[in-house]
Every structure is written in structure tokens, then in C-alpha cells.
Design goal:
Layout (H helix, E strand, L loop, with lengths): L2 H27 L11 E4 H10 L1 H8 L3 E13 L5 E6 L6 E6 L11 E11 L12 E10 L1
Parallel strand pairs: 1-2, 4-6
Antiparallel strand pairs: 2-3, 2-5, 3-4, 5-6
């Protein structure tokens, strides 16, 4: 090879490395998604759960990792080990819920209240068929939109 060709290859290689490093730096420092101001996919808790049960591949494509706005009736309120509020929204399936982990305190919410939450859908958890437990659909970093 001649010197001109080697020099061109080195310049292209250095440019590619610089581009990869720039993209990596941006992705590392961009921070979490702004859920409150993001456009959300609107759905009912029972419809969301049914979508994951009937067509899990399509539901994962449509909802997982995306900001959603889910409407439903509060079934229970509890705290997890990280001291975050967990609110379960009813679905049409007995023992199956949309599990919402709250980003901030939702205020004075009670069981049987009809609420609208906005958060990131994480998909459906595994149930245990032997124990008769169904998997819940998980929504994280939730904010209350309407009570």
C-alpha cells in the first residue's frame, strides 16, 4: 500500500472512533426521560392487560419502554422496599393488575378511586401457573394525571 492510502484509512478510522465516542458520551449523560411532558399512549388498565395476555409480542412492541397514560380503578395501595408507593389498578381478570410504581406521592388516593397515571410501561411479569398466580403489567415512574 502506498502512504496516501494508509493516511486516508487512518483519518477515516479516527473519525469513526470520534463519532462513536461522541454518541456514547451523549447517551451516557442524557438523563432519564421527561415523563410529565412526554406524549403518552392512552389506554385503560383492563385493555392494557388484555393486550399483553392475548398478543404479548404486539403489546411489547406497542407499549414496553414507552410512556403510557393508564386509566383504572384503584384496587390496593402499598409500599415497596424502596419506600415507593405501589398502586394496583383493577383489570377484568381476577388476581391480575396493572402495577404502578409512583415517582412521587400521589396525594389522597383511596381504594375504588378512578385515576389516570402516566409512566413507563415495563411489560408483563411472570405469574406462577402452579400457584394460580397471574402476572401483572408493570408501569414505573408514575405520576398522577387525574383523580
Amino acid at each position: 500500500m502506498n502512504r496516501k492510502r494508509i493516511k486516508t484509512i487512518l483519518i477515516v478510522l479516527i473519525f469513526c472512533i470520534a463519532m462513536i465516542a461522541s454518541v456514547g458520551y451523549y447517551l451516557f449523560n442524557k438523563g432519564p426521560a421527561d415523563i410529565k411532558n412526554n406524549v403518552a399512549i392512552k389506554t385503560e388498565a383492563s385493555a392494557l392487560y388484555l393486550q399483553f395476555i392475548s398478543d404479548s409480542t404486539g403489546a411489547i412492541k406497542n407499549y414496553s419502554g414507552k410512556v403510557i397514560e393508564v386509566t383504572g380503578e384503584v384496587n390496593s395501595i402499598s409500599m415497596n422496599q424502596q419506600n415507593e408507593k405501589i398502586i394496583l389498578l383493577k383489570t377484568n381478570t381476577d388476581g391480575a393488575y396493572v402495577n404502578c410504581t409512583m415517582e412521587e406521592d400521589p396525594g389522597n388516593i383511596k381504594i375504588k378511586d378512578r385515576v389516570v397515571f402516566k409512566g413507563i410501561c415495563s411489560g408483563i411479569g411472570e405469574g406462577d401457573e402452579d400457584l394460580g398466580l397471574t402476572g401483572d403489567v408493570y408501569v414505573t415512574r408514575c405520576f398522577i394525571i387525574k383523580k
